[in-house]
Predict the structure.
Amino acid sequence: MPEIVVFDYGSGNVRSAQRALETTGATVSITSDFDVALAADGLFVPGVGAFGACASQLRSVRGDQIIERRLSGGRPVMGICVGMQVLFESSTEHETQVPGIYQWPGQVVELRADVLPHMGWNTVSAPKDSQMFAGVAEERFYFVHSYAVTEWELDVTGAFTPPLVTWANYGQDFVAAVENGPLWATQFHPEKSGDAGLSLLENWVEYVKGAK
């Protein structure tokens, strides 16, 4: 089975992520060590709290460099919640422009909804050929957030395969998940999403195994 690292950079419930990933049979460790995170078969990047703090903490342990190097070599990375948001260009959280680590263009903005945060179970609209949502596309997943990406801005042309973007709705449509080659991400918490979330993590671990 593959070796998965849950990246411990000070943001996110790493223990619950570890326990959920271990249900797939993978070997799972928690670390912020640069070389260990770089060498793992799969890197899992959690994230909670404010976008700016999360991005700053990630950079403080060279997490942005680890992610960039892994992706340049086609090595799988998965981000969840704010760990997904920081993969985008920037956020307008607290009415200031805060830079992310810019794997994708686009801004993380406050949702236009009557009640925030968006907290609880919600359905998603996944592409038919999604590997991430294989077998669980009709299930519900657990969200806790007030900010999200509401416009997908990456325009892929030529020989490149376009990312698969999954959407959800809370007051307005927002990006719920992205599959972009070795880079996967979810706005929801798969580790808190019951059997559906565990099945989704199994799908990611299967992808990691195929990428070895």
User: Anything to note?
Assistant: The longest helix spans residues 194-211. The chain has a mean pLDDT of 95.
